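Each record in this resource describes a single protein on a pair of labelled lines. The shape at a given residue is found from the number at the same position. The record below illustrates this layout:

***
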Amino acid sequence: MTDSAPIFILGLQRGGTNQLLNALRSHPDTIWPDGEMHEVLRPKPALRGATAKTLAGYLPTALRSGDIMNPRRAPGPLRPRDRAWIARELARATERNLPEVRRFKRALAAQGLGPAVPSGRARMVLKVMNYNIGLATDLDRIYPGARFIGLVRDPYGICESMMARGGNPTKILELYRYFGETLLRLEQRGLPLKVVRLEDMVGDFRQCVDEVFDLCGLAPNATQGLCLQSKERITDAAGRVIGTRKVDTFHAFDHVNRHMRADINDAARAELAPEVAGLVQKNCAAVMERFGYLAPVALG
């Protein structure tokens, strides 16, 4: 590992990755691009010039190797040119986002939770989500010495949360199984990977963050808290939504657990229909066992 080796968070939507991401962002040695890996390299089509330019840059890779950055399906093998493109574009995106990085660090320092002056190191932190975690071995080749954090959550909680946002349970559980099996294969291959359970992070956030910092070679006492971010809608005089803005809230590491629901999975499980709970057990029991989750008896 080198002082500039990136840190990748491998996670699922609704899996608690934002808290861990912002703990890493709050360390003085880290920088990051604006968005998850697929958002940076494969943004949704839009009329904005910057987005169109990024899409145009993705087109040669898509024509050569397929839609490899699509987080909704497993990626195929990457070619050397694909890996070179990823390294180049992530570096450019991170450079463009440095003003926001500096603003974030200044805001944290103003609360007395971080140093007033960031360090001279530059460890890129990036979320790699859903099926994109199939690119982890390629990222390890692109960035020798990179560190990987796999954040897992009880599949009952993941399933209910994604279904509440319109997800199909069959597709959700296919994704969960792919994600879990991929993490286990990465561990077996010796990837520098630490698997963290959301439930353990909720139980003792400070200890979890200290362990992650240790794996990544980050000084454990360089920052005392984190900045969590949410988006607030901006409306015009007629009440129409015309945009969003980031809203910062600040928390000392030792107090973060007060803002995290320890019963989140129990509440989610209670919302699942019996047939869906049965699907969870049928599709994910083996992965649940490997990650230390007990597979409960199907409801009903």
Observations:
- The CA atoms of residues 85 and 225 lie 35 Å apart.
- Strands lie at 7-11, 30-31, 123-129, 147-152, 193-197, 225-235, 241-252.
